[in-house]
C-alpha cells in the first residue's frame, strides 16, 4: 500500500512538473477598449503599448515590458532623468557643504574658546589692536600735507621755468613724479588700512557675540 502511494505521488509530481515546464506564457495587456486582457498570444499592434508576461499555472508575473516611447516621450524622459540627477547632485553637494561648514564651525569655536577666557579679555585685545592700527593710519595721514606742500613747490618751480621760456629740467620732472607717486601710494594705503580696520571691527564683534554664546553653553553644562 505504501509503495503504491509513493508511486502515485511520484507520478503526480512529475505531471505537475511537466505541466509547469511545458506551459506557454500568458500575456496580460490593455486592449483597444481599455480592457485588461489575458491571452496566450500577443497581438503585434499591442506590443509597443507594453504588456506583462505571466506564468500560466501560478499567474505569477515573470516580466513587465514597458511601452515603447515615442521620440518626444523619450526626450522628455531623458530630460526628467537629467533633472533628477542634477537635483541629487545638488542635494549631495549641499549636504557636503553643510557638513564642512559644521566642521569648520567646530574648529572656529575651539580656537575662540582657547584664545579668550572671557568677553573682557576679547574686548581688551580688540581695543589694543584697533588702536595700534588707527595710529598707523594717522601717521600716514600726517605725511600727506607735507608731501602735498612739496609737490606744490616743485610744480611752482616748473611753472616758473615754463613762463620764463626755459625747459623744465629732467631732475625737476623726476621730483614731481616721485612726489605724485608717493602721495598716491600713501592715499591708497590709507584707504586699504581704513577698510581693513572696519572689517576687523566687524570680525571682533562677531567673535564677541559667538564667544558669549559658547560661554553660556559651557556654563549651562
UniProtKB/TrEMBL annotation:
Q: Which UniProt keywords apply?
A: Coiled coil, Signal
- Is Coiled coil tagged as a keyword? yes
Q: Which domain of life is it from?
A: Bacteria
Q: Which positions make up the signal peptide?
A: 1-23
Q: Which residues fall in a coiled-coil region?
A: 70-97, 130-217
- The name on file for this protein is Uncharacterized protein
Amino acid at each position: 500500500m505504501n509503495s503504491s502511494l509513493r508511486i502515485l505521488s511520484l507520478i503526480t509530481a512529475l505531471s505537475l512538473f511537466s505541466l509547469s515546464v511545458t506551459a506557454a506564457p500568458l500575456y496580460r495587456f490593455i486592449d483597444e477598449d481599455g480592457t485588461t486582457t489575458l491571452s496566450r498570444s500577443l497581438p503585434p499592434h499591442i506590443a509597443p503599448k507594453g504588456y506583462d508576461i505571466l506564468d500560466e499555472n501560478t499567474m505569477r508575473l515573470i516580466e513587465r515590458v514597458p511601452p515603447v516611447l515615442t521620440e518626444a516621450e523619450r526626450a522628455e524622459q531623458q530630460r526628467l532623468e537629467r533633472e533628477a540627477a542634477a537635483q541629487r547632485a545638488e542635494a549631495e553637494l549641499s549636504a557636503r557643504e553643510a557638513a564642512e561648514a559644521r566642521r569648520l564651525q567646530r574648529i572656529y569655536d575651539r580656537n575662540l574658546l582657547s584664545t579668550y577666557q572671557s568677553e573682557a579679555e576679547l574686548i581688551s585685545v580688540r581695543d589694543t589692536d584697533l588702536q595700534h592700527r588707527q595710529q598707523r593710519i594717522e601717521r600716514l595721514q600726517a605725511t600727506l600735507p607735507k608731501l602735498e606742500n612739496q609737490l606744490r613747490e616743485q610744480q611752482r618751480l616748473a611753472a616758473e621755468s615754463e613762463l620764463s621760456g626755459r625747459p623744465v629740467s629732467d631732475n625737476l620732472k623726476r621730483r614731481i613724479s616721485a612726489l605724485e607717486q608717493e602721495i598716491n601710494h600713501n592715499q591708497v594705503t590709507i584707504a586699504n588700512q581704513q577698510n581693513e580696520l572696519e572689517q576687523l571691527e566687524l570680525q571682533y564683534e562677531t567673535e564677541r557675540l559667538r564667544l558669549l554664546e559658547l560661554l553660556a553653553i559651557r556654563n549651562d553644562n
